[in-house]
Amino acid sequence: MGSGSRHLKALAAPAFWPILRKEYKWTVKPSPGPHPIERSIPLLIIVRDILKYAKTGREARRLIAEGHFKVDGRVRRNYKYPVGPMDVLEIPKTGEIYRVIPVPTKVLGLIKNTPEEARIKPCRIEDKTTVKGGHIQLNLHDGRNIIVKVSDPKNPVEDTYETLGTVVVSLVDNKIVDYIPLEKGVIAIVIGGRNVGRVGRIVEIIPGALKRRKYIATLQDKYGNIFQTSIEYVFPIGRDKPVITLPEGAW
Q1: Of 2, 139, 207, 226, whose CB count within 10 A is highest?
Q2: What whole-number distance in Å separates Cα of residue 251 and Cα of residue 244?
Q3: Burial of 87 (0-12, 13-18, 19+ CB in 10 A)
Q4: Structure letter (DSSP) for residue 182
Q5: Distance between CA atoms of residues 188 and 202, nearest Å
Q6: For residue range 177-193, what is the model confidence (pLDDT) as tens digits?
Q7: How far is CA 141 from CA 7, 20, 121, 144, in A?
Q8: pTM of the entire structure?
Q9: Tens of pLDDT along 193-237?
Q10: Is 246 helix (H, G, I), strand (E, B) or coil?
């Protein structure tokens, strides 16, 4: 069944993919894309195994090829397309809209969205670079880049953004509509590790090794429980309240 580079053994797939490992030897290997394999689900598996729109992989591939599914407002016809955290999945024919949200134990889940909310997407800033003209490029968690125009490179007052903070992006025009820094007091969701899917207000950020991503964040959930995780897994989603709909009981 082809080479290991093009296919993925079902047993080697991320544990949270809802596939029948004992029934099938092979599964879909996601295309290289905006999300890493451990934090994404191929579109085919969402269509067949989560939404149950198809009984077989072949049926799912046909539906996807026909253009029935949009991710972040764009029709995706590649059945291997990796769908990951904060992506908006839309099925225009039925009017269904979902956002992909980290959820406890399952890692990723689909939460119903309104058309209004589906126009925005929280994106975490993974990296920042200075580009030609002294402008700042924000490299976001879903592979998109946004340029922040700077009028004076020696004094870039427009650059108010920090790595691991979240910009809320309009999916209509790719413009920044809000910014949620990674700091004490903001509400965040955990996107990896054993606390994946938990939501809490950041109580403290404890410096770790020299690298900032080694820091530990202490969060408090809505029930008053305190938990800790690496800030590598912390994704800010709001100040007073989350900017997105969360699973029931999460916040």
Answers
A1: 139
A2: 11
A3: buried
A4: S
A5: 7
A6: 999 999 999 999 999 98
A7: 25, 29, 11, 7
A8: 0.89
A9: 899 999 999 999 998 765 667 899 999 999 999 999 999 999 999
A10: coil
